[in-house]
Amino acid sequence: MLRKVTDTTLSPQFDELFNFLFTLILETGKKTVILIHSYHNIYRRSPTFRRLFNYAVPSLTEKHKIKIASTIQPYSDFVGKVIKFPDVCTMLLIPQYLSLPGQPENFSAIRIYLHEMLHILLNLRDPTLGAGSI
Ligand SMILES: [Zn+2]
To answer: What CATH number has the domain bearing residue 90?
Structure first.
């Protein structure tokens, strides 16, 4: 039976849950604090993200890795259970996208973190590979 995606409860154990579900792998010298803090903030501020996270947690049976590396292509590997993010320096090299008014804009780290996390939580892939996968 499908569970409904309605639970917006703010779990006080978010950080523990996050650390239980995800292993952070960083290149030498990088810090994990900002990443966990970003997800914690999204969880605290967004009832929608809370609903999805609370819904997905019981079904995430295997630990995922979050890898921060010198890649300009963030992606979620469903088979290998890895989310790969560009590091802060590489983030600046990602091509801009056109916003709704047609202005070129940089991808924000938060936007990328959220996008890739939603792939894992919802077990949904991008419809096409390439530019649409960011
Ligand atoms: Zn994607």
So the answer is: 3.30.2410
